[in-house]
Write a structure and sequence with these properties.
Layout: H1 2-16, H2 18-33, H3 35-49, H4 51-57
Helix pairs in contact: 1-2
């Protein structure tokens, strides 16, 4: 519930201030352009959700 309220507040602020929306879009595009960052984030997410992987790595 709280996550949706925070997301709604953030989207509301971005819609009220178009330069902030442009800045957020530019930052998102810069992050998505770096494939190494994306692959690392996916690896961390999979590692956190797969307890069998941690046992296997020991």
């Amino acid at each position: 519930m709280m996550r949706w309220l925070i997301l709604g507040a953030l989207l509301g602020l971005l819609l009220l201030y178009p330069p902030a929306l442009a800045l957020a879009a530019a930052i998102l595009a810069a992050v998505l352009a770096k494939t190494a960052v994306i692959v690392f984030a996916i690896g961390v997410a999979v590692g956190l959700r797969a307890p069998w992987l941690r046992r296997w790595a020991r």
